[in-house]
Design a protein that fits this description.
This protein is mainly alpha-helical and about 80 residues long. Helix content is about 40%, strand content about 5%. Helix 1 packs across helix 2.
Length: about 80
């Protein structure tokens, strides 16, 4: 059920490389330039389910008490 596998698990490597084109090694194998080019054309685009990005950004996965003092949670004016 890995979303990178999409509907065809044989395209897993192309999908991961499309999402992460600067990756140098995947599954302990060196990534070649031509493989990146192929991945950009044939790999599937992975999208985030609606609403999940907002939940991650608002709390950083921490309880409210911890996010209050988290420097990553400050906006530009506060920094």
């Amino acid at each position: 059920e890995n979303p990178c596998c999409g509907t065809d698990s044989s395209r897993y490597r192309l999908t991961v490389l499309r999402c992460l084109p600067r990756l140098q090694k995947l599954d302990n194998q060196v990534v070649a330039e031509d493989e990146i080019a192929l991945a950009l054309m044939e790999g599937e685009e992975v999208t985030t389910p609606p609403g999940s990005v907002q939940n991650q950004l608002s709390t950083n996965g921490l309880p409210d008490a911890e996010t209050e003092n988290d420097p990553l949670n400050y906006n530009m004016e506060e920094t």
